[in-house]
Design brief:
Layout lengths: L2 E10 L2 E11 L4 E5 L6 H8 L7 E6 L2 E3 L4 H6 L2 E4 L11 H6 L5 E2 L2 E2 L1 H15 L14 H14 L4 E5 L7 H16 L3 E6 L2 H7 L2 E6 L2 E6 L5 H9 L18 E10 L5 E11 L3 E5 L6 H8 L7 E6 L2 E2 L5 H6 L2 E4 L3 H5 L6 H4 L11 E2 L2 E2 L1 H14 L16 H12 L6 E5 L7 H16 L4 E4 L3 H7 L2 E6 L2 E6 L5 H8 L4 H10 L2 H6 L4
Parallel strand pairs: 3-10, 3-11, 6-9, 9-10, 15-22, 15-23, 18-21, 21-22
Antiparallel strand pairs: 1-2, 1-4, 4-5, 7-8, 11-12, 13-14, 13-16, 16-17, 19-20, 23-24
Helix pairs in contact: 17-18
Length: about 525
Protein backbone atom coordinates (compact mmCIF):
# COMPACT_ATOMS: atom_id res chain seq x y z
CA UNK A 1 0.00 0.00 0.00
CA UNK A 2 1.31 3.45 -0.94
CA UNK A 3 0.93 6.36 1.49
CA UNK A 4 1.12 9.93 0.27
CA UNK A 5 0.82 13.25 2.11
CA UNK A 6 0.19 16.42 0.14
CA UNK A 7 0.76 19.78 1.83
CA UNK A 8 -0.41 18.45 5.21
CA UNK A 9 -0.53 21.23 7.80
CA UNK A 10 -1.51 20.95 11.46
CA UNK A 11 -2.07 24.01 13.63
CA UNK A 12 -2.83 24.32 17.33
CA UNK A 13 -4.16 27.85 17.69
CA UNK A 14 -1.43 30.16 16.42
CA UNK A 15 1.23 27.42 16.61
CA UNK A 16 1.99 25.47 13.43
CA UNK A 17 3.29 22.00 14.31
CA UNK A 18 3.36 20.72 10.70
CA UNK A 19 3.78 23.12 7.80
CA UNK A 20 2.85 21.89 4.29
CA UNK A 21 4.38 18.43 4.65
CA UNK A 22 4.83 16.39 1.45
CA UNK A 23 5.77 12.73 1.95
CA UNK A 24 5.57 9.50 -0.06
CA UNK A 25 6.00 6.01 1.43
CA UNK A 26 6.25 3.35 -1.26
CA UNK A 27 4.95 -0.21 -0.72
CA UNK A 28 7.47 -2.64 0.75
CA UNK A 29 9.85 0.06 1.96
CA UNK A 30 11.06 1.51 5.26
CA UNK A 31 10.77 5.29 5.13
CA UNK A 32 12.32 7.14 8.05
CA UNK A 33 11.10 10.46 9.35
CA UNK A 34 14.08 12.06 11.07
CA UNK A 35 14.05 15.20 13.17
CA UNK A 36 15.02 16.69 16.49
CA UNK A 37 12.71 16.76 19.51
CA UNK A 38 9.78 19.07 18.93
CA UNK A 39 10.21 19.03 15.14
CA UNK A 40 6.63 17.76 14.66
CA UNK A 41 7.28 14.07 13.93
CA UNK A 42 4.81 12.61 16.43
CA UNK A 43 2.18 15.20 15.54
CA UNK A 44 2.41 14.19 11.89
CA UNK A 45 2.09 10.51 12.80
CA UNK A 46 -1.00 11.28 14.88
CA UNK A 47 -2.50 13.03 11.85
CA UNK A 48 -1.86 9.97 9.67
CA UNK A 49 -3.32 7.69 12.36
CA UNK A 50 -6.49 9.74 12.73
CA UNK A 51 -5.83 11.09 16.22
CA UNK A 52 -5.66 14.62 14.78
CA UNK A 53 -7.42 16.06 11.76
CA UNK A 54 -5.14 18.03 9.42
CA UNK A 55 -5.78 21.75 9.28
CA UNK A 56 -4.93 21.69 5.56
CA UNK A 57 -3.77 19.20 2.95
CA UNK A 58 -4.75 15.63 2.21
CA UNK A 59 -3.77 12.01 2.83
CA UNK A 60 -3.89 9.47 0.01
CA UNK A 61 -3.75 5.66 0.08
CA UNK A 62 -2.92 4.04 -3.25
CA UNK A 63 -3.71 7.36 -4.91
CA UNK A 64 -7.15 7.82 -3.36
CA UNK A 65 -7.83 10.62 -0.84
CA UNK A 66 -8.95 9.41 2.59
CA UNK A 67 -10.40 11.15 5.62
CA UNK A 68 -10.07 9.72 9.12
CA UNK A 69 -12.31 10.81 11.98
CA UNK A 70 -10.39 8.63 14.44
CA UNK A 71 -7.85 5.77 14.75
CA UNK A 72 -10.61 3.25 14.00
CA UNK A 73 -10.90 4.65 10.49
CA UNK A 74 -7.12 4.52 10.02
CA UNK A 75 -6.97 0.89 11.21
CA UNK A 76 -9.85 -0.07 8.94
CA UNK A 77 -7.92 1.47 6.04
CA UNK A 78 -4.84 -0.64 6.85
CA UNK A 79 -2.74 1.71 8.99
CA UNK A 80 -1.35 0.53 12.34
CA UNK A 81 0.74 2.46 14.86
CA UNK A 82 3.15 1.45 17.61
CA UNK A 83 3.43 4.41 19.98
CA UNK A 84 6.62 5.32 21.83
CA UNK A 85 4.76 4.83 25.11
CA UNK A 86 2.91 1.55 24.71
CA UNK A 87 -0.89 1.52 24.71
CA UNK A 88 -1.24 -1.69 26.73
CA UNK A 89 -3.19 -2.60 29.87
CA UNK A 90 -0.46 -3.99 32.18
CA UNK A 91 -2.69 -6.38 34.15
CA UNK A 92 -4.29 -7.90 31.03
CA UNK A 93 -2.84 -10.85 29.15
CA UNK A 94 -1.36 -10.51 25.69
CA UNK A 95 -4.53 -11.99 24.15
CA UNK A 96 -6.79 -9.63 26.10
CA UNK A 97 -4.74 -6.60 25.00
CA UNK A 98 -4.77 -7.68 21.36
CA UNK A 99 -8.53 -8.27 21.48
CA UNK A 100 -9.31 -4.82 22.93
CA UNK A 101 -11.32 -2.80 20.44
CA UNK A 102 -11.83 -5.76 18.12
CA UNK A 103 -13.40 -8.30 20.44
CA UNK A 104 -14.78 -11.52 18.99
CA UNK A 105 -17.64 -13.15 20.86
CA UNK A 106 -19.11 -16.61 21.12
CA UNK A 107 -22.66 -16.12 22.22
CA UNK A 108 -22.49 -13.82 25.23
CA UNK A 109 -18.84 -14.68 25.98
CA UNK A 110 -15.58 -13.22 24.77
CA UNK A 111 -13.90 -15.59 22.28
CA UNK A 112 -10.23 -15.25 23.14
CA UNK A 113 -9.29 -18.54 21.50
CA UNK A 114 -9.55 -16.98 18.05
CA UNK A 115 -7.26 -14.15 19.20
CA UNK A 116 -4.80 -16.62 20.73
CA UNK A 117 -4.67 -18.51 17.43
CA UNK A 118 -3.91 -15.32 15.48
CA UNK A 119 -1.20 -14.33 17.97
CA UNK A 120 0.47 -17.73 17.65
CA UNK A 121 0.32 -17.58 13.84
CA UNK A 122 1.94 -14.13 13.72
CA UNK A 123 4.41 -15.00 16.47
CA UNK A 124 5.53 -18.15 14.62
CA UNK A 125 5.76 -16.34 11.30
CA UNK A 126 8.06 -13.59 12.61
CA UNK A 127 9.80 -15.43 15.43
CA UNK A 128 8.28 -13.20 18.11
CA UNK A 129 8.11 -15.93 20.80
CA UNK A 130 5.11 -14.29 22.50
CA UNK A 131 2.86 -16.30 24.83
CA UNK A 132 -0.79 -15.23 24.31
CA UNK A 133 -1.60 -15.94 27.97
CA UNK A 134 1.35 -14.03 29.49
CA UNK A 135 0.45 -10.99 31.60
CA UNK A 136 1.84 -7.86 29.92
CA UNK A 137 3.37 -6.30 33.06
CA UNK A 138 5.51 -9.44 33.48
CA UNK A 139 7.04 -9.11 30.00
CA UNK A 140 10.32 -7.34 29.12
CA UNK A 141 9.95 -4.03 27.29
CA UNK A 142 11.09 -5.53 23.99
CA UNK A 143 8.41 -8.22 24.15
CA UNK A 144 5.75 -5.65 25.05
CA UNK A 145 6.68 -3.81 21.88
CA UNK A 146 6.16 -7.02 19.88
CA UNK A 147 2.67 -7.22 21.40
CA UNK A 148 1.97 -3.76 20.00
CA UNK A 149 3.17 -4.89 16.57
CA UNK A 150 1.01 -8.02 16.81
CA UNK A 151 -2.01 -5.82 17.62
CA UNK A 152 -1.48 -3.97 14.35
CA UNK A 153 -0.86 -7.11 12.30
CA UNK A 154 -3.96 -8.86 13.68
CA UNK A 155 -5.90 -5.95 12.22
CA UNK A 156 -4.24 -6.51 8.81
CA UNK A 157 -2.12 -3.35 8.84
CA UNK A 158 -0.38 -2.79 5.50
CA UNK A 159 1.29 0.41 6.70
CA UNK A 160 2.94 0.32 10.12
CA UNK A 161 4.00 3.50 11.93
CA UNK A 162 6.78 3.00 14.49
CA UNK A 163 7.13 6.11 16.67
CA UNK A 164 10.58 6.20 18.32
CA UNK A 165 10.50 2.39 18.65
CA UNK A 166 14.04 2.00 20.02
CA UNK A 167 13.87 4.72 22.67
CA UNK A 168 13.22 2.19 25.46
CA UNK A 169 15.09 -0.82 24.05
CA UNK A 170 18.45 -2.32 24.90
CA UNK A 171 21.00 -2.74 22.08
CA UNK A 172 20.10 -6.44 21.75
CA UNK A 173 16.37 -5.66 21.63
CA UNK A 174 17.06 -2.99 19.01
CA UNK A 175 18.86 -5.53 16.83
CA UNK A 176 15.85 -7.87 17.16
CA UNK A 177 13.47 -5.08 16.16
CA UNK A 178 15.55 -4.25 13.09
CA UNK A 179 15.35 -7.93 12.07
CA UNK A 180 11.56 -7.84 12.51
CA UNK A 181 11.35 -4.69 10.36
CA UNK A 182 13.31 -6.44 7.61
CA UNK A 183 10.81 -9.32 7.66
CA UNK A 184 7.83 -6.98 7.52
CA UNK A 185 9.37 -5.14 4.57
CA UNK A 186 10.01 -8.45 2.81
CA UNK A 187 6.30 -9.24 3.25
CA UNK A 188 5.47 -6.11 1.27
CA UNK A 189 4.36 -3.98 4.20
CA UNK A 190 5.26 -0.28 4.32
CA UNK A 191 6.95 1.04 7.45
CA UNK A 192 7.13 4.64 8.56
CA UNK A 193 9.95 4.73 11.09
CA UNK A 194 10.28 7.79 13.33
CA UNK A 195 13.62 8.25 15.05
CA UNK A 196 16.50 10.56 15.81
CA UNK A 197 19.16 7.82 16.15
CA UNK A 198 21.31 8.28 13.09
CA UNK A 199 23.03 4.89 13.08
CA UNK A 200 19.71 2.99 13.21
CA UNK A 201 18.14 5.22 10.60
CA UNK A 202 20.95 4.55 8.13
CA UNK A 203 20.86 0.82 8.91
CA UNK A 204 17.16 0.17 8.20
CA UNK A 205 15.82 2.90 5.91
CA UNK A 206 15.26 2.87 2.17
CA UNK A 207 14.63 6.61 2.23
CA UNK A 208 14.99 9.34 4.86
CA UNK A 209 12.92 12.51 5.13
CA UNK A 210 14.23 15.16 7.52
CA UNK A 211 11.92 17.71 9.13
CA UNK A 212 12.94 20.73 11.17
CA UNK A 213 10.59 23.09 13.00
CA UNK A 214 7.60 21.42 11.31
CA UNK A 215 8.90 21.69 7.73
CA UNK A 216 10.51 19.18 5.36
CA UNK A 217 14.11 20.20 4.75
CA UNK A 218 15.00 17.34 2.44
CA UNK A 219 14.71 13.67 1.51
CA UNK A 220 17.95 11.70 1.15
CA UNK A 221 19.26 8.17 0.68
CA UNK A 222 20.54 6.20 3.70
CA UNK A 223 24.05 6.56 2.27
CA UNK A 224 24.06 10.14 3.57
CA UNK A 225 26.64 10.59 6.31
CA UNK A 226 25.68 10.96 9.96
CA UNK A 227 27.26 14.42 9.92
CA UNK A 228 25.08 15.47 6.98
CA UNK A 229 21.93 14.08 8.62
CA UNK A 230 22.70 15.74 11.95
CA UNK A 231 23.24 19.10 10.27
CA UNK A 232 19.95 18.78 8.38
CA UNK A 233 18.13 17.97 11.64
CA UNK A 234 19.34 20.92 13.71
CA UNK A 235 20.24 23.47 11.03
CA UNK A 236 23.91 23.78 11.93
CA UNK A 237 27.03 21.64 12.24
CA UNK A 238 26.94 19.21 15.17
CA UNK A 239 29.99 17.79 16.93
CA UNK A 240 29.27 14.06 17.22
CA UNK A 241 32.41 13.50 19.33
CA UNK A 242 32.40 14.55 23.00
CA UNK A 243 35.17 17.07 23.59
CA UNK A 244 36.69 16.46 27.03
CA UNK A 245 40.12 16.65 28.59
CA UNK A 246 41.72 14.17 30.98
CA UNK A 247 40.05 14.12 34.41
CA UNK A 248 41.48 16.26 37.21
CA UNK A 249 40.65 14.46 40.46
CA UNK A 250 40.08 16.12 43.82
CA UNK A 251 39.39 15.00 47.40
CA UNK A 252 35.63 14.63 47.00
CA UNK A 253 34.53 11.00 47.01
CA UNK A 254 31.41 8.95 46.70
CA UNK A 255 31.81 5.44 48.05
CA UNK A 256 29.76 2.25 48.16
CA UNK A 257 30.83 -0.72 50.29
CA UNK A 258 29.09 -4.09 50.51
CA UNK A 259 25.86 -2.72 49.06
CA UNK A 260 23.20 -5.43 48.80
CA UNK A 261 19.46 -5.38 48.20
CA UNK A 262 16.86 -8.14 48.10
CA UNK A 263 13.62 -7.54 46.19
CA UNK A 264 10.21 -8.17 47.83
CA UNK A 265 10.07 -11.48 45.92
CA UNK A 266 13.35 -12.59 47.50
CA UNK A 267 15.67 -12.00 44.52
CA UNK A 268 19.06 -10.41 45.27
CA UNK A 269 19.11 -7.44 42.90
CA UNK A 270 22.31 -5.92 44.33
CA UNK A 271 25.01 -8.31 45.46
CA UNK A 272 27.90 -6.92 47.56
CA UNK A 273 28.70 -3.95 45.31
CA UNK A 274 31.89 -2.01 46.10
CA UNK A 275 33.04 1.06 44.17
CA UNK A 276 34.34 4.59 44.57
CA UNK A 277 33.95 7.72 42.44
CA UNK A 278 36.33 10.64 42.90
CA UNK A 279 35.46 14.27 42.36
CA UNK A 280 36.30 15.27 38.79
CA UNK A 281 35.61 11.92 37.11
CA UNK A 282 32.73 10.15 35.38
CA UNK A 283 32.13 6.56 36.36
CA UNK A 284 29.86 5.04 33.70
CA UNK A 285 27.84 1.94 34.58
CA UNK A 286 27.30 -0.45 31.69
CA UNK A 287 25.00 -3.44 31.58
CA UNK A 288 21.93 -4.84 29.91
CA UNK A 289 18.80 -3.19 31.30
CA UNK A 290 17.49 -4.97 34.39
CA UNK A 291 20.78 -6.04 35.93
CA UNK A 292 20.65 -3.89 39.05
CA UNK A 293 21.53 -0.48 37.65
CA UNK A 294 18.08 0.95 38.39
CA UNK A 295 18.09 -0.35 41.98
CA UNK A 296 21.64 0.95 42.45
CA UNK A 297 20.75 4.54 41.56
CA UNK A 298 17.46 4.36 43.48
CA UNK A 299 19.30 3.12 46.57
CA UNK A 300 21.66 6.09 46.36
CA UNK A 301 18.56 8.32 46.40
CA UNK A 302 17.09 6.63 49.49
CA UNK A 303 14.31 4.79 47.67
CA UNK A 304 15.24 1.33 49.04
CA UNK A 305 15.58 1.73 52.82
CA UNK A 306 16.05 -2.03 53.34
CA UNK A 307 19.36 -2.05 51.44
CA UNK A 308 22.40 -3.06 53.50
CA UNK A 309 25.99 -1.89 53.34
CA UNK A 310 27.41 1.62 53.22
CA UNK A 311 26.69 4.51 50.85
CA UNK A 312 28.76 7.56 51.74
CA UNK A 313 29.40 10.98 50.24
CA UNK A 314 32.48 12.80 51.50
CA UNK A 315 32.52 10.59 54.58
CA UNK A 316 28.84 11.03 55.48
CA UNK A 317 26.55 7.99 55.25
CA UNK A 318 23.52 8.43 52.98
CA UNK A 319 21.96 5.03 53.55
CA UNK A 320 18.90 5.37 55.77
CA UNK A 321 18.38 9.06 55.01
CA UNK A 322 15.21 10.33 53.35
CA UNK A 323 15.28 11.25 49.69
CA UNK A 324 14.70 14.90 50.57
CA UNK A 325 17.71 14.95 52.89
CA UNK A 326 19.86 13.28 50.24
CA UNK A 327 18.84 15.91 47.70
CA UNK A 328 19.56 18.61 50.27
CA UNK A 329 23.06 17.17 50.74
CA UNK A 330 23.78 18.16 47.14
CA UNK A 331 22.84 15.11 45.07
CA UNK A 332 21.38 15.74 41.61
CA UNK A 333 19.46 12.84 40.08
CA UNK A 334 18.16 12.23 36.55
CA UNK A 335 15.93 9.12 36.78
CA UNK A 336 15.67 6.67 33.88
CA UNK A 337 11.89 7.14 33.57
CA UNK A 338 11.25 10.86 33.29
CA UNK A 339 7.46 10.51 33.13
CA UNK A 340 7.00 8.36 36.23
CA UNK A 341 9.89 9.56 38.40
CA UNK A 342 11.18 12.87 37.04
CA UNK A 343 8.15 15.01 36.27
CA UNK A 344 4.57 15.73 37.28
CA UNK A 345 2.88 15.75 33.89
CA UNK A 346 -0.05 17.98 34.82
CA UNK A 347 2.20 20.59 36.47
CA UNK A 348 3.49 23.46 34.35
CA UNK A 349 7.01 23.58 32.93
CA UNK A 350 7.92 26.36 35.38
CA UNK A 351 6.68 24.29 38.34
CA UNK A 352 8.56 21.18 37.24
CA UNK A 353 11.76 23.20 37.06
CA UNK A 354 11.60 23.78 40.84
CA UNK A 355 10.13 20.47 42.02
CA UNK A 356 13.15 19.80 44.23
CA UNK A 357 13.53 23.41 45.36
CA UNK A 358 10.00 24.76 45.75
CA UNK A 359 10.45 25.30 49.50
CA UNK A 360 13.73 27.22 49.11
CA UNK A 361 13.58 30.86 50.16
CA UNK A 362 14.28 31.84 46.56
CA UNK A 363 10.98 30.33 45.42
CA UNK A 364 8.66 30.47 48.43
CA UNK A 365 7.73 32.50 51.47
CA UNK A 366 6.22 30.12 53.99
CA UNK A 367 3.39 28.25 52.24
CA UNK A 368 3.19 30.83 49.45
CA UNK A 369 5.14 30.38 46.21
CA UNK A 370 7.05 33.29 44.70
CA UNK A 371 5.55 33.02 41.24
CA UNK A 372 7.70 35.77 39.72
CA UNK A 373 10.93 34.08 40.87
CA UNK A 374 9.70 30.70 39.59
CA UNK A 375 8.86 32.21 36.21
CA UNK A 376 12.20 34.00 35.97
CA UNK A 377 14.01 30.76 36.81
CA UNK A 378 12.03 28.95 34.11
CA UNK A 379 12.75 31.57 31.44
CA UNK A 380 16.48 31.35 32.24
CA UNK A 381 16.54 27.53 32.15
CA UNK A 382 14.44 27.31 28.97
CA UNK A 383 16.91 29.59 27.16
CA UNK A 384 20.00 27.94 28.69
CA UNK A 385 18.94 24.39 27.74
CA UNK A 386 17.11 25.26 24.51
CA UNK A 387 13.81 23.76 25.71
CA UNK A 388 11.27 24.00 22.87
CA UNK A 389 7.77 24.97 24.07
CA UNK A 390 4.87 27.33 23.58
CA UNK A 391 4.72 28.70 27.11
CA UNK A 392 6.38 27.99 30.47
CA UNK A 393 2.88 27.83 31.94
CA UNK A 394 1.89 24.87 29.74
CA UNK A 395 1.72 21.41 31.36
CA UNK A 396 5.04 19.64 30.94
CA UNK A 397 3.20 16.62 29.49
CA UNK A 398 2.49 18.69 26.35
CA UNK A 399 6.21 18.83 25.51
CA UNK A 400 7.97 16.30 23.30
CA UNK A 401 9.85 13.54 25.12
CA UNK A 402 13.26 15.08 24.47
CA UNK A 403 12.19 18.49 25.74
CA UNK A 404 10.72 16.86 28.85
CA UNK A 405 14.15 15.28 29.39
CA UNK A 406 15.83 18.67 29.09
CA UNK A 407 13.49 20.01 31.78
CA UNK A 408 14.68 17.26 34.14
CA UNK A 409 18.36 17.80 33.33
CA UNK A 410 18.05 21.59 33.63
CA UNK A 411 16.42 21.28 37.06
CA UNK A 412 18.97 18.79 38.42
CA UNK A 413 21.95 20.85 37.26
CA UNK A 414 20.53 24.15 38.50
CA UNK A 415 22.17 24.15 41.93
CA UNK A 416 25.57 23.38 43.46
CA UNK A 417 26.14 19.62 43.53
CA UNK A 418 28.27 17.26 45.61
CA UNK A 419 27.27 14.26 43.42
CA UNK A 420 25.50 13.96 40.08
CA UNK A 421 23.71 10.70 39.17
CA UNK A 422 22.35 10.48 35.62
CA UNK A 423 20.43 7.38 34.56
CA UNK A 424 19.76 7.13 30.80
CA UNK A 425 20.19 10.93 30.48
CA UNK A 426 19.70 11.02 26.70
CA UNK A 427 17.01 8.35 26.26
CA UNK A 428 14.57 9.55 23.62
CA UNK A 429 16.65 12.67 22.91
CA UNK A 430 17.75 13.93 19.47
CA UNK A 431 21.34 14.41 18.35
CA UNK A 432 21.42 18.17 18.96
CA UNK A 433 20.05 17.79 22.48
CA UNK A 434 22.42 14.87 23.16
CA UNK A 435 25.32 17.17 22.35
CA UNK A 436 24.03 19.76 24.82
CA UNK A 437 23.37 17.24 27.62
CA UNK A 438 26.78 15.62 27.16
CA UNK A 439 28.44 19.03 27.37
CA UNK A 440 26.63 19.76 30.64
CA UNK A 441 27.60 16.38 32.15
CA UNK A 442 31.26 16.96 31.25
CA UNK A 443 31.05 20.51 32.63
CA UNK A 444 29.74 19.12 35.93
CA UNK A 445 32.66 16.67 36.04
CA UNK A 446 35.13 19.48 35.21
CA UNK A 447 33.66 21.52 38.08
CA UNK A 448 35.00 18.78 40.39
CA UNK A 449 31.78 16.84 41.01
CA UNK A 450 31.77 13.03 41.18
CA UNK A 451 29.51 11.86 38.33
CA UNK A 452 27.77 8.50 37.96
CA UNK A 453 26.37 7.80 34.49
CA UNK A 454 24.10 4.82 33.80
CA UNK A 455 23.42 4.10 30.14
CA UNK A 456 22.49 1.21 27.86
CA UNK A 457 23.93 3.16 24.91
CA UNK A 458 27.50 1.93 24.44
CA UNK A 459 28.39 4.95 22.29
CA UNK A 460 27.45 7.16 25.24
CA UNK A 461 29.43 5.01 27.67
CA UNK A 462 32.57 5.24 25.54
CA UNK A 463 32.11 8.96 24.85
CA UNK A 464 31.77 10.08 28.47
CA UNK A 465 33.38 7.52 30.77
CA UNK A 466 36.66 8.01 32.59
CA UNK A 467 36.13 4.52 34.02
CA UNK A 468 33.47 1.88 33.27
CA UNK A 469 31.79 -0.34 35.91
CA UNK A 470 29.95 -3.36 34.49
CA UNK A 471 26.87 -4.84 36.21
CA UNK A 472 25.44 -8.32 35.68
CA UNK A 473 22.65 -9.79 37.82
CA UNK A 474 23.30 -7.17 40.49
CA UNK A 475 27.01 -7.98 40.75
CA UNK A 476 29.91 -5.74 39.82
CA UNK A 477 31.88 -7.70 37.21
CA UNK A 478 34.76 -5.23 37.24
CA UNK A 479 35.81 -1.64 36.66
CA UNK A 480 37.76 -1.03 33.45
CA UNK A 481 39.24 1.80 31.42
CA UNK A 482 37.23 3.28 28.51
CA UNK A 483 39.65 1.89 25.93
CA UNK A 484 38.29 -1.62 26.54
CA UNK A 485 37.27 -3.33 23.25
CA UNK A 486 33.53 -3.53 22.71
CA UNK A 487 33.52 -7.29 22.42
CA UNK A 488 35.27 -7.60 25.81
CA UNK A 489 32.81 -5.16 27.39
CA UNK A 490 29.97 -7.17 25.84
CA UNK A 491 31.25 -10.39 27.43
CA UNK A 492 31.42 -8.68 30.82
CA UNK A 493 27.83 -7.49 30.37
CA UNK A 494 26.94 -11.14 29.76
CA UNK A 495 28.52 -12.22 33.06
CA UNK A 496 32.27 -12.64 32.52
CA UNK A 497 34.90 -10.97 34.67
CA UNK A 498 37.37 -8.67 32.94
CA UNK A 499 40.10 -11.35 33.05
CA UNK A 500 37.74 -14.01 31.65
CA UNK A 501 36.51 -11.69 28.90
CA UNK A 502 40.01 -10.70 27.80
CA UNK A 503 41.11 -14.34 27.84
CA UNK A 504 38.12 -15.41 25.73
CA UNK A 505 38.69 -12.53 23.32
CA UNK A 506 42.34 -13.47 22.80
CA UNK A 507 41.31 -17.03 21.78
CA UNK A 508 38.69 -15.94 19.25
CA UNK A 509 39.31 -16.08 15.56
CA UNK A 510 39.32 -12.66 13.83
CA UNK A 511 35.91 -13.32 12.19
CA UNK A 512 34.38 -14.26 15.55
CA UNK A 513 35.85 -11.21 17.23
CA UNK A 514 34.42 -8.94 14.57
CA UNK A 515 31.01 -10.52 15.01
CA UNK A 516 31.17 -9.82 18.73
CA UNK A 517 31.44 -6.09 18.08
CA UNK A 518 27.64 -5.76 18.09
CA UNK A 519 26.42 -5.68 21.69
Amino acid sequence: MKLELRSVTKRFGSFTANDSIDLVVEPGTVHCLLGENGAGKSTLMNVIYGLYEPSEGEILLDGKPVHFSGPGDAMAAGIGMVHQHFMLVPVFTVAENVALGAEETKGASLNLEATRRKIREISDRYGFHVDPDAVVEDLPVGVQQRVEIIKALVRDAEILILDEPTAVLTPAETDELISIMDQLRSDGRSLLFISHKLREVRAVSDEITVIRRGKVVGTVEPTASTTELASMMVGHDVNLVVDKSAPVLNESEFSVEGLSLVSPSGVKVLDDVNLQVRGGEILAIAGVQGNGQTEFTETIMGLHPKATGTVSLNGKNLLGRSTKKIIRSGVGFVPEDRLDDGLVGSFSVEENLVLNQFDDQEFSRGPQLKRRSIQENARHKVADFDIRLNSISDPVETLSGGNQQKVVVARELSHRLSLFVASQPTRGVDVGSIELIHQRIVAQRDAGTPVILVSTELDEIYALADRIAVFHHGRLMGIVDPDIPREVLGMMMAGATADEAYAESSHRAPAEAAEGETV
